[in-house]
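We append the chain.
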Amino acid sequence: MDPSLREVAGTGDTDALYALIRKDPYMLEHIDQIPFIDTPLHIAANEGQIKFAMEMINLKPSFGRKLNQDGFSPMHLALKMGHTKLVLRLLKTDKDLVRVKGREGMTPLHCAAAAGNSNLLFQFLETCPECVEDVT
């Protein structure tokens, strides 16, 4: 990925994102063609950049389900880093993101349960009751 895009995702600069898109309208499409990659959404999720993450998932919803080279989706990373508000915003955008199987078949629901985060677990089950059917 372009280092400039990595930087704007990490800092949450949506204006700079659109400046990069003006230079290369296919930039996000090229990233989407790579099977396992840290997308700009992964980077924003890791850094807790809520506004940027929401902009990115609106532009490229497929990034929400994409796994990086370590086997984590953006929601997995946001959970791992303790960015609960971002996790809940992603959940509100697409409830099925909680069902994305990552490394070792773990879903964000499994990660919340393993971490003992009962509040988040309740939110997941309330929003996506069918996620209880997912097994590792």
